[in-house]
Design goal:
By secondary structure, the protein is mainly β. The chain has a single domain, classed as Maltoporin, Chain A, CATH 2.40.170. It is about 10% helix and about 55% strand. The chain has seven helices and 35 strands. The longest helix has 24 residues, at about 1-25. The chain is globular and about 70 Å long.
């Protein structure tokens, strides 16, 4: 079967190359006939800009947002500026189908749940490099410290994407893309406010003679709030310090040859409270460091054939200290995870209506940790796993009206064996501005290093890793309708999705004996729901947009709701610019009740944030922002605090 598939892939590529070569030599009669039959997009909808936005996540190649058959949304630097936000977690809070859960404000561990999937089922990428923690219990990424420094845009793709991106992309992909400037700029800002918070930011970029570069740096210091919920008589504040630096360089060596790379480094120091007892801990200090490095080459041998080589490296280091009295509270640990990636792919374009992407990727992850407390020492020497994959995708797009994607991947994991995934989607845009789309796809998640190799901790009766674990798997389908009216003044998108997960990895805790089993493939779950998003722009200075998510989650093992996924979620944003220099932005978020661990139920809550900005001159602006405007007392995770009403003021200079 595998040999047959490989032969088909080679035949497909050779046939595509010969077809594309013939297309270079003579005009395509078929192409002309098809384009005559299908009117261009702007003929249908009139002058538009939103659907013309370029995205890259669904197919690894540039395509217009309006032609994509996927459920995808994009937020960019203009959105970050309007909302006055500086972290990725805040940028994702107002996305349909996405739930952000944080264990306490500022530095609390932050998880993402896409369409009801687990926290490790969403692939986070930064300029093509996977962001995650190889040595965390399930390999999930902690979004708490990831800033928006030098970020141009974030593309959020919902639904399984393993056929193209491999492991982790079971529920979706969040692709973070750095700035590639076309014109010079220099920006600097300072902000201060509640909880003795101070924040400084600087960024600059330029482009000259094919050379593009950008750099950004920020610093945040805050006294913070108690990570443990204040209502439990926890009054001690837990301070937080964070420094972040990010840069990107691109060089257009020739018309058909581009090279570049990115760097990103974040360092944080913070105090936190005991999550087990949900009580103040005056002494525990955490440190977190992460670094990302990428480099790429992109070149065309012919107009119809582009090749891409991408290298990436990531490292995450976590440390915790508590050596103050009492002795029973002693803690010292260090977790180190590393990741290396190589990706090579070819993009063959046929008659400007079809793209074939064939590629190979290889990843290696390494991890080790040391843990010591008053009960003893647990030491895990370096462990590793490798994964290689061959992927093939065909992307058909006729005048941005008729589009379809077919993809398949074969992956081999050094511990879990070989598995295949697929993806099939399609869409059609009618002359009424109505687009119908559908998708069916499979996904997988390879076991994390910790799940494979972690030693048993005898003092806590915690079972260890299991080297015989199989990958987690999913099958999903969705269908949707998008309606575009009056250019881009009114947009409504509705999607129904249904996903079944099986072979989910877990370790069962037995409260009567305080024993945790060894990790095993034991879980099965089902999620289905509806996503509705809308954007209305009746006038150039007024925009109203929002989204609603309804999802039913079910743990099929014990017939209970999946934890920390609300059944209902709503957000609304209203932007108003009464005069050229003055603007207001109000945002409302509603989270319905949801289940948490230990049989707890988190209550529903509604939070309102407000921002006003005044441009003193074309180079200087003042702003004020008010978070949790009505001082809502709520929890995202049982026992952990959230910020009450808080106010901040800032000044920004841009040149």
């Amino acid at each position: 079967m595998k040999r047959l598939l490989l032969v088909m892939v080679i035949f497909f590529l050779i046939n595509a190359v010969s077809t594309a070569k013939a297309d270079e030599e003579r005009p395509s009669i078929l192409k002309k006939l098809l384009q005559t039959a299908i009117s261009p997009l702007d003929t249908i909808l009139g002058p538009i800009t939103e659907l013309e936005r370029i995205i890259v996540t669904p197919s690894r190649i540039e395509e217009r947002l309006g032609s994509s058959s996927s459920s995808i949304s994009v937020v960019d630097a203009k959105d970050f500026e309007r909302k006055k936000i500086d972290t990725t977690k805040d940028a994702l809070r107002e996305e349909v189908g996405v739930d952000i859960v944080q264990s306490g404000a500022f530095q609390g561990v932050t998880s993402i749940f896409t369409r009801g999937g687990n926290s490790n089922h969403t692939l986070i990428m930064i300029d093509g490099v996977k962001a995650y923690d190889p040595i965390s219990p399930n390999g999930a990424y902690n979004l708490a410290h990831l800033t928006l420094d030098n970020v141009d845009r974030i593309e959020t793709l919902r639904g399984p994407q393993s056929a193209l991106y491999g492991s982790d992309a079971m529920a979706g992909v969040v692709n973070i893309i750095s700035k590639k400037p076309e014109a010079p700029y220099v920006n600097a800002s300072y902000e201060a406010g509640s909880f003795y918070t101070h924040k400084e930011n600087f960024e600059a970029g330029a482009s000259t003679k094919g050379f593009h570069y950008s750099i950004a740096a920020s610093r945040l210091d805050t006294r913070g709030i108690s990570q443990a919920q204040a209502k439990n008589d926890n009054q001690e504040a837990d301070p937080y310090e964070r420094t972040a630096v990010a840069s990107r360089v691109d060089y257009d060596i020739a018309d058909k040859f581009t090279a570049g790379g990115t760097l990103r480094y974040t360092s944080a120091r913070f105090e936190y409270d005991n999550g087990f007892t949900r009580k103040d801990d005056d002494n525990t200090v955490g440190r977190y460091r992460e670094s990302f490095m990428t480099t790429y080459l992109s070149f065309k041998l012919f107009e119809w054939w582009r090749q891409n080589i991408h290298l990436g490296r990531m490292e995450v280091i976590r440390q915790d200290f508590d050596d103050d009295p009492p002795a029973s509270d002693y803690l010292s640990d260090k977790y180190t995870g590393k990741y290396f990636k190589f990706d090579y792919n070819n993009n063959v374009n046929i008659m400007d209506i079809d793209d074939i992407i064939i590629g190979y990727d290889y990843i290696e992850e390494i991890g080790d940790f040391y843990y010591e407390d008053s009960f003893g020492v647990t030491d895990q020497s370096k462990v590793f796993s490798r994964e290689a994959g061959l992927y093939l995708e065909n992307r058909f797009n006729l005048s941005d009206r008729l589009a379809s994607t077919q993809g398949v991947r074969i992956s081999h994991h050094s511990r879990s064996g070989t598995f295949e995934t697929y993806r099939l989607d399609g869409s059609y845009l009618f002359v009424t501005g109505t687009k119908i789309r559908g998708l069916i796809a499979s996904g997988f998640k390879a076991p994390a290093l910790y799940q494979l190799f972690s030693p048993a901790i005898a003092s806590y009766s915690i079972g260890g890793g299991n080297s015989d674990l199989r990958p987690e798997k999913s099958i999903s389908y969705e269908y949707g309708i998008d309606q575009y009216l009056f250019g881009e003044k009114v947009t409504v998108a509705t999607t129904y999705f249904h996903t079944v997960y099986k072979d989910l990895i877990d370790a069962v805790y037995h409260p009567d004996t305080w024993v945790t089993d060894q990790y095993a493939n034991m879980g099965k779950a089902r999620v289905h729901g509806i996503e509705i998003s809308t954007k209305i722009k009746p006038f150039s200075r007024i925009t109203v947009q929002g989204g609603f998510t309804y999802q039913k989650t079910k743990n099929l093992q014990n017939d209970t709701d999946l934890l920390r996924r609300p059944e209902k979620k709503l957000f609304v944003e209203c932007f108003w610019q009464p005069i050229e220099k003055l603007s207001f932005d109000a945002r409302l978020r509603y989270n319905g009740p949801m289940a948490d661990s230990g049989g707890y139920k988190i209550k529903e809550y509604t939070v309102v944030d407000f921002v006003t900005t005044y441009d003193v001159t074309k180079n200087f602006s003042l702003y004020a922002k008010f978070n949790n405007l009505f001082n809502q007392h709520y929890e995202e995770l049982v026992g952990y605090g959230t910020a009450p009403f808080s106010a901040y003021a800032g000044v920004k200079a841009k040149f």
